[in-house]
Specification:
Receptor-associated Protein; 378 residues; 2 domains
Length: 378
């Protein structure tokens, strides 16, 4: 590893031949309870503060292991023990299978460059921004989800409990039902007879279907389909571009060469489309091309982003430009979320109102028909 670092190479992973008993045991114990991002954030922040204050790594880890600073699910004590036995922090963290390859490589680069506290702070800032963006998305979707759930609950109550009573009265009065009422009656009868198993099954199927549709995966065709979804597709696409450029910028800022940063991005992109693009860009750069040229060739990044990356390459401040572009993209995503909500909320209100109004109309149509017949007979 030291020989590779001396040549400016940063391996993505290194396995010792024949080793495995202790490491595999540590990995299995590390999998038992996966920490949350906020716990990893607190660990990185606290460790960076202690190192910046002048405390050596072993003592800082021992201090964090003794104190519960919101990192209870992290195996800090095992990390401290491995460091005491001579392992570097990146090797100790990698052996536990708790931290991501992105975090481990940033720390490895920080160890090589002698600025471990700055590397930890970069990771903490990245996690913090990710959590903030996720919180904004959750807050933005809370009201639309409430509208959908309220509308579905109202619809189910009407279809299962209220409408059967109306139709029982119509049946006793031998009222001729219009086509709309007949269709709604059929649907209500099916729901009323099978509500015990049909409603939970449809609910779970809808929940997991939407979750699968919105969750990026290793399927490139499915990812491209997600990016074409109305309203949410452009939002997911912009968030992936933000994640791609910010991660690349942080890796390059830590001293990892662009080609190796892209090789790591291939594994952690989170999307099959962007993982493939990262691999293609990496191959182009290794063949002598520039990052801006490869970004333009991918047809995924806007012309303004490509031009700014080109300026960063020419000025020798590529990492700073990538981080600056990421910050600008984050502001655009905030505006995009607001625009999505501007269109989504009235659409949902109208849709819920139209469906409930249609059902109410189907219940009232027989009454109108009966009233007209009575007046005509009178």
């Amino acid at each position: 590893m030291e020989a590779l670092r001396a040549e400016g190479l940063f391996p993505l992973s290194i396995d010792e031949p024949g080793a495995g008993t202790a490491d595999s045991l540590a990995r299995s114990s590390g999998r038992s309870k996966k920490p949350r991002r906020r716990q990893v954030l607190m660990f990185m922040k606290n460790l960076a503060r202690l190192l910046k204050a002048g405390m050596d790594l072993e003592r800082a880890l021992a201090t964090l292991a003794r104190e519960d600073n919101g990192t209870a699910a992290l195996p800090v004590e095992r990390i401290a023990e491995r460091v005491r036995h001579g392992d570097s922090l990146s090797v100790a963290m990698e052996s536990l299978d708790v931290f991501t390859p992105f975090q481990i490589n940033i720390i490895r680069a920080g160890e090589f460059g002698g600025n471990l506290d700055a590397a930890l702070q970069r990771i903490a800032s990245a996690i913090e921004r990710e959590l903030e963006l996720r919180s904004k998305v959750i807050q933005a979707t809370a009201y639309p989800l409430f509208l959908i759930c309220f509308g579905l609950l109202s619809l189910l109550i009407m279809m299962i409990f209220i409408m059967p009573r109306f139709f029982k009265v119509y049946d006793e009065m031998h009222v001729r039902l219009p086509m709309l009422t007949h269709i709604v009656l059929t649907a209500s009868s099916i729901l009323h007879a099978n509500a015990f198993w049909l409603v939970p099954m449809v609910g779970f199927a809808g929940f997991f279907g939407i979750r699968q549709l919105l969750h990026l995966s290793e399927n490139e065709s499915l990812d491209r389909l997600r990016f074409k979804l109305p309203l949410f597709g452009p939002l997911m696409f912009q968030m992936q571009i933000l994640n791609f450029l910010r991660t690349l910028g942080l890796l390059v800022q830590s001293g990892i060469p662009v080609a190796q940063s892209l090789a790591l991005l291939t594994k952690i992109a989170g999307s099959a489309v962007f993982s493939k693009i990262a691999n293609e860009i990496e191959q182009g750069i290794r063949n002598g091309s520039r990052l801006s040229q490869e970004l333009r060739r991918s047809n995924l990044f806007g012309e303004s982003i490509v031009n700014l990356v080109a300026v960063g390459e020419e000025s020798g401040h590529l990492e700073s430009m990538l981080i600056e572009i990421s910050c600008d993209l984050e502001r655009r995503i905030d505006e995009l979320i607001k625009n999505v909500l501007t269109f989504l909320e009235p659409i949902l209100i109208l849709a819920v109102g139209a469906i409930i109004g249609l059902i109410v109309m189907s219940m009232l149509l027989p009454i109108f028909s009966l009233s007209a017949n009575l007046r005509a007979g009178g």
